[in-house]
Amino acid sequence: MELKDTVDMMLSEDFKERFKAEYYQTKTRYDKLHDILTSYDAGVLSFEPDSGVDILREQAKHMGQYLYDLEVRAKKEKIEL
Fold this sequence. Notes:
There is one protein chain. Helix content is 69%, strand content 0%. By secondary structure, it is mainly α. It has one domain (3-76). Helix 2 (15-42) packs antiparallel against helix 3. The mean pLDDT is 97.
């Protein structure tokens, strides 16, 4: 899924659809960041991050925790992701 695929969901009147969009957007961004970090660690990243890799690792950690929190909430509220 790409971010553009979540636009209609974000505009929905249904909070469950907006919740799903928030999850999918965060997951998409997290997966891309994770790919950057694994490529960096493997020595195959084609660029050097301007902000440094430490802040990117910290960001990925927080994003991962946020995804976990959304997944727990989705189970509690019976929202199919």
